[in-house]
Amino acid sequence: MNAPSASSLVFCKSIHHGNTARVAGAVCSVLGCEFVDPDAVPAVIPAGCGLLGIGSGVYYGRMHPALFAWLRKLPDAPAGTTPAFIFSTSGLPFLADLWHRPLRRLLARKGFDVVAEFTCRGFDTWGPLWLTGGLNRTHPDERDLERAGAFAEKLRDACGR
Ligand SMILES: Cc1cc2nc3c(=O)[nH]c(=O)nc-3n(C[C@H](O)[C@H](O)[C@H](O)COP(=O)(O)O)c2cc1C
User: What is the distance of C-alpha 154 from the center of its chain?
Assistant: First the structure.
């Protein structure tokens, strides 16, 4: 993965089936940047960054700890300084409000204004699900990726990226 463009910084941690990485790819192709692994870059917001995107799969009810670790290293700042968006894939995306909540709170503490959130189903073979062939076997599918692209278009237009 290459460095992101100066105007949009997108982080993604995708460790199970690469589901969230596919969503990140669809979003980044619209925003004109590439996503990075939070473990691979220092916790610094580059000058000129006008939009932060941050996403992962959901693991045991939480988004990936690497996202939190990266954000915690940033200094606290007044909320609303930089627009941000959250994205995820999970076995149970109808609970995304719950899955995203801790990250949403931490982003606010670090000075970000969470302006949009995206979620979709992700292929899940965790634990006993493996025996049944898994949950959401075909997801994210083309329709999910189109939705992710449309989500990014709206963001791009709203944030002037
Ligand atoms: C160890 C593990 C724990 C998981 N826990 C949850 C969970 O608590 N809630 C949920 O909805 N999905 C859960 N899932 C399903 C993943 O969130 C889903 O497969 C997601 O799309 C994985 O994204 P990735 O391929 O980008 O890593 C879990 C998957 C794994 C492997």
Answer: 16
